[in-house]
Amino acid sequence: MRIAVDAMGGDKAPDVVIEGTAEALELYPHIDIVLVGHLQKINPLVRNYGLQNHPRLTLVHAEQAIAMDDPSISAIRAKKHSSMTLCAELVHKGEADAVVSAGHTGAAVAATTFRMKLLPGVERAGIATIMPSTKGHFVFIDAGANVDCKPLHLAQFAVMGEIFARSMGVHRPKIGLLSIGEEDVKGNDLTKEAFKMLSSMPINFIGNVEGKLLYERIADVVVCDGFVGNIVLKSSESLAKALSFWMKKAFKKNPVRQAWAILATNAFKELKEVADYEEYGGAPLLGVNGVCIIGHGSSSPKAIKNAIRVAGEIVKFRVNEHITERLAECGVAVKQQ
Amino acid sequence: MRIAVDAMGGDKAPDVVIEGTAEALELYPHIDIVLVGHLQKINPLVRNYGLQNHPRLTLVHAEQAIAMDDPSISAIRAKKHSSMTLCAELVHKGEADAVVSAGHTGAAVAATTFRMKLLPGVERAGIATIMPSTKGHFVFIDAGANVDCKPLHLAQFAVMGEIFARSMGVHRPKIGLLSIGEEDVKGNDLTKEAFKMLSSMPINFIGNVEGKLLYERIADVVVCDGFVGNIVLKSSESLAKALSFWMKKAFKKNPVRQAWAILATNAFKELKEVADYEEYGGAPLLGVNGVCIIGHGSSSPKAIKNAIRVAGEIVKFRVNEHITERLAECGVAVKQQ
Prior knowledge:
Shape of chain A: globular
CATH topology of the largest domain in chain A: Isopropylmalate Dehydrogenase
Oligomer: homodimer
Mean pLDDT of chain A: 90
Order of helices and strands of chain A: EHEHEHHEHEEHEHEEHHEEHH
Number of domains of chain A: 2
Structural class of chain A: alpha/beta
Low-confidence stretches of chain A: none
Strand order of the largest sheet of chain A: 3-2-1-4-11-10-5-6-9-7-8
Radius of gyration of chain A: 20 Å
Largest sheet of chain A: 11 strands, mixed
Distance between the termini of chain A: 31 Å
Helix content of chain A: 40-55%
Strand content of chain A: 15-25%
CATH class of the largest domain in chain A: Alpha Beta
CATH superfamily of the largest domain in chain A: Isopropylmalate Dehydrogenase
């Protein structure tokens, strides 16, 4: 199995990416890695981590890199030799089984959609994030690949999410639709139509999931459009940061409590592991014809290493083949043009 | 000033509503209250709180009450004698200046929209919630009144939010549009059109506000459609609950920490006040022809008391007159049919 890693993607690239790659090479002997980036920048780091003659590492030069603030689609069009584009091309040409990037999410979506194309029957790709809840974890799709959705897209996301949850061992995943009330008549035009479609599919559809129950995992897979998904995900990160800020402030108000604040910090660290994306390594972009894992921009080496592991698992479980089959079974595959 | 209070609205109604009313009567001598509910149920409580002969309290009998799980619009149609409907009628007939209800949000929106109608120039009403941030508070509109929005509705919400922020002393409120990226080209079809409209209005529009910065108050007013607004608000409540759960669990892991957990609870209580809706008493439904404050279903007496205070402030500041004028100034008033 060969995984292409975008060495230039992420806030602290290429350093943390190469450190994560080194960890992955050591831990996962079944995975070969193709590191794609500007050789002048990555070669010294490759030597630093003692990887210059590693038998399972190949380096591929990319003249360009996509910056975090580049506009996504135009960046992909303008930067034809970017590391992200080359990674997608390697998968498209069969020279790699998957791509991992912690770079610009929009650019990763655009590059893979343009170069690798979509799976047969798929009309839009969706980002499947793993979210924490008080009762374990759940799959949240679409976390931001596709902002203007039709009901069919949500139905396809449900299938992709179902297969992804199965790949993680959930036997018959419960699928919920993110909406504003429990009853089928509650929602906006999009979700009301999607509700009907999901109800008619041979999946374990449990109906609407309200925002107020999101973090209690009443479903294994929660489906929404990418606009709502991105905002829920990002505002949740923002709130968690704010709550930690308020908590520290409350502790500091009282001088006696200040000492406890230090101890509380230890509890916070454990908490971080409950909720942290690092453990899950990144979110697969499902629906593209190839495997693509998108890491958080602020990925640590550990997150990169885990993203490589997750990519390997998705290839091994043949998630894409299962998605294609299941879309047809559920009657929501579109005819190819 | 007379405020109609829906005695039957809320999870713990009528008890907490009457307790909150008693507090408001004592604290706000300029406010008269009309308590609307089933007299058989409210009379004993009114006596309990020593309000039976209160010179500034009037009781109005309502044969019906809307349950929290009634479907909103049909409930309002079916229950013409509900306390919520009668409150809205009192305002419509000029017998009260405002209505306060901690009941079913959808029913409150439906009852006030049907009975009180909308303000001249307004096409949809929006719920304006006050949200906490690490740098104070901001107005978040629409928190769930109107799920399928046109760009014009978001433009009108911006004006309503601006006037509401002004009523709380913000001189020239910064208005942001909740979206998925900072640039004007980022967003869905709705927000991209709304962005253009907001840019052309004589307001202090600062552009898109991303989810990741929501709780850092880069704007005084954040505008979104009611579907997104409801989900962001409710999923934030859900996450705050989950974080508190994880925190307690992390504390309990270590027996020494257990003692500290008790102390941490005190810090949590203070935190609750930073973030708590109780202090703000409820969210005004803006755009209806009359003042309506919607409280949280789980309102405490303190929240009810504060909702009554906020209703009084909105009446006093003549928020509705300002909204009508400002919609015209901004060129986003619709012609009445």
